[in-house]
Amino acid sequence: MKSHLFLLSLSCFFTSSLGLQAAIVYSENFDSLSLGSIDGQDGWSVINLNGTSAADVSNTEAQSGSQSLFMLDDDATNRPSAISDFGTDVNNGSFDFYVFPTSNNLWRIDFTNSGGGSFNFSILAQGGSGNIRIQRQDTSEAGSIAASSTSYATNTWNHFNIQVDDASGSGIVTLNGTEILNISDPTVTWSIGRGLFSLGYNGGTGISTYYDTLTLATVPEPGQYAMIVSLFSFAVVGIIRRKNTRK
Ligand SMILES: [Ca+2]
Ligand SMILES: [Ca+2]
């Protein structure tokens, strides 16, 4: 009997550990890249990088290791962007990132499917108002919250996580572990396959932000949970039967 209980608890332990394990499909910490322009490194490309604007691997600030992505909007006609394709579309999972705005809270990440196309949605910080927003493809606002009600701050690393579930039409944003946005909007394509990291605005100059420690992960589908539970149940039943036969 004792061995039965042991096997059952062992089964539960493995089932829960496997079930909780998210599959990481993309990660970037900038630590193994060469200092200077990120263009062409590790699959990154840049657009609208004119004048003295920058999208550089930097060792000035780092959330992980010793390097991060430094971006500077320093031209009065556009908004520079650095693009990374995650190689797969995640519509039930999460994107985790850290951002360090140096002064003006004007940064944004636009998400499309892998390979490009129109924006599915964006997360952005709105400068003076200090709001963190999720924006739909049609540019209307899906939800917002005043950043002053959170620990959001400039000149420090802020940890954001966006959890998406396209099947239920939900997007949840946490900031430093606290939920700040919980959006139910089935009109949004809650899919993350490619990120366009940006900052500033067309007419603005002298605005800079660091990004670091990016992670895109899927969560196991309910079907996978069921399969894992079934497999362990079969294994446990098999072992118990074998033990009983020996008696
Ligand atoms: Ca890093
Ligand atoms: Ca600009």
Q: Overview of this structure, please?
A:
- The structure is a single chain.
- The chain is an alpha+beta fold.
- The protein has one domain: Sandwich (Jelly Rolls), CATH 2.60.120.560.
- The chain is 18% helix and 45% strand.
- Strands 1, 2, 4, 5, 7, 12, 13, 14 and 16 form a nine-stranded antiparallel beta sheet that branches. It has a seven-stranded antiparallel beta sheet with strand order 3-6-15-8-9-10-11, with no helix packed on it.
- Helix 1 packs antiparallel against helix 2 (222-246).
- The protein is globular and about 75 Å long.
- The two termini are 12 Å apart.
- Residues 10-17 have low confidence and may be disordered.
- One calcium ion (CA) is lined by residues 29-31, 62-65, 67-68, 212-213.
CATH architecture: Sandwich
The overall average pLDDT, rounded, is: 85
CATH fold annotation = Jelly Rolls
Given the C-alpha coordinates, what overall shape results? globular
Count of DSSP H/I helices: 2
Radius of gyration: 22 Å
What's the main sheet like? 9 strands, antiparallel
CATH class: Mainly Beta
The secondary-structure class comes to: alpha+beta
Strands, total number: 16
Distance from N terminus to C terminus (CA atoms, Å) equals: 12 Å
What's the multimeric state? single chain
Task: Identify low-pLDDT runs.
Answer: 10-17
Strand content: over 45%
**Element pattern in H and E:** HEEEEEEEEEEEEEEEEH
> What ligand species are in this complex?
calcium ion
Percent helix range? 10-25%
For the record, what is the CATH homologous superfamily label? Exo-inulinase, domain 1
| Structural domain count | 1
